[in-house]
Amino acid sequence: MPSGDLNTRVRLAERIRSLKPALAEAVTEQFFQRHPDWKERYGERGRQRGIEDASFHLDFLAGAIECGEPAAFESYARWTVGVLEARGIAAHFVAENIEQLSGALRGQLTPEEQSFVDAYVQAGSQACARGGATPEVGQAETGLALTRNLFLQALLRGERKAATGIVLEALRQGHPIRDLYLEVLQEALYAVGRLWETNQITVAKEHMATAIVQAVMAQLYERMPEPAQSQGAAVITGVEGEFHQVGANMVADILEADGWSVSFLGTNTPHAGILDTIEEQQADLVGVSATMLFNVPRVRQLITDIRQRLPERTPRILVGGGAFRSAPALWQEIGADGYASDLRAVQSLASSFEQPSRS
After folding, report:
1. How many CA atoms lie within 13 A of 282 on its CB side?
2. C-alpha distances in angstroms, 94 versus 130, 291, 294?
3. pLDDT for residue 173
4. More exposed terminus of the chain, fewer Cβ within 10 Å: N or C?
């Protein structure tokens, strides 16, 4: 499978992004011409959604190319098929749309670039042929399995008080806050996401569940015990364009419970503000979250900016989030010091980093 050097991949990804608006509209028009019944069925709203979907395909194609991982685009295609099949759109329509984008790019790229892109498109098309991702139906039984299941039901019913009570009762029973974050809150949100992907709940209900989880986190945060020792200063953030905040918020809370002095900047934060905060706090650790592949270029730029601005006392830089799960070596290529797949890994890596000496 192709990998290519990072600079070559970045240039190709940027080229695809620059072409995205025109290509997305062109292939959507072509798709509706091929399928006139779609125009009658979905009308102008359907055409606009088609442009949005094509833009999303191109964003993820560019992101996968920049990562050097055809498997990342394969995962995206499989996920997309699962979501759309649950809404009555067959997998072959997704494959057709992806292949259309490849055809539209053909006149815009060099033969070498097109050959590179074709490997990613083929991975996506093959994923479409295999069908959507099968939702996980359950979690391994643990001491918190019942708590998690009750909490999930409370989320789906929109019962904020009940959800809070379920988690606080588990806390009273002696379960550490870290375990409640990892095995209850995080896993329940994963389950909610799978239900949305398979069209079993609405996006409004998914957003409601997320809001309840954030409210429960606020209750747990107030009850965090004082740490035994201080670990250093940390800044946790998401780059501009990153709107998924709960995971980064969990990381901030867990590190604070572990003794770090944490500045949590939320997500979709301008780089200038992130850099100012890192310098003001004399941060020993910076955690950057990215859920979508197309936000990785901003993460890479932020890491470059940090190293250029603080060459004498550069903090250790940790990345995490869904964007890195399908590209195991990506964190090294973009200049990070480590990648954490979950909260336990965050704690382990953070404690293992040797802190820069303070001047």
Report:
1. 6
2. 12, 22, 19
3. 87
4. C
- Which pLDDT band holds residue 135 (cuts at 50, 70, 90)? very low
Q: Helix 187-197 crosses helix 203-222 at what angle (to 10 degrees)? A: 170
How many domains are contained in the chain? 3
Specify whether the CB–CB gap between 236 and 204 falls below 8 A. no
Does the structure show a pLDDT above 70 at 296? yes
**Domain of 154, in residue numbers:** 145-222
CATH of the domain at 260: 3.40.50.280
Three-class DSSP category at 313:
coil
What is the C-alpha to C-alpha distance for residues 303 and 300, in angstroms, rounded to an integer? Answer: 5
- Angle 204-53-331 (CA atoms, 0-180°, nearest 5)? 90
Q: Are 29 and 107 within one domain?
A: yes
Question: What residues does 163 pair with on adjacent strands?
Answer: none
Task: Based on the fold, state whether residues 21 and 122 are members of the same structural domain.
Answer: yes
In the prediction, which pLDDT does 3 show? 55
The pTM for the full model equals 0.74
CB of 284 closer than 8 Å to CB of 242: no
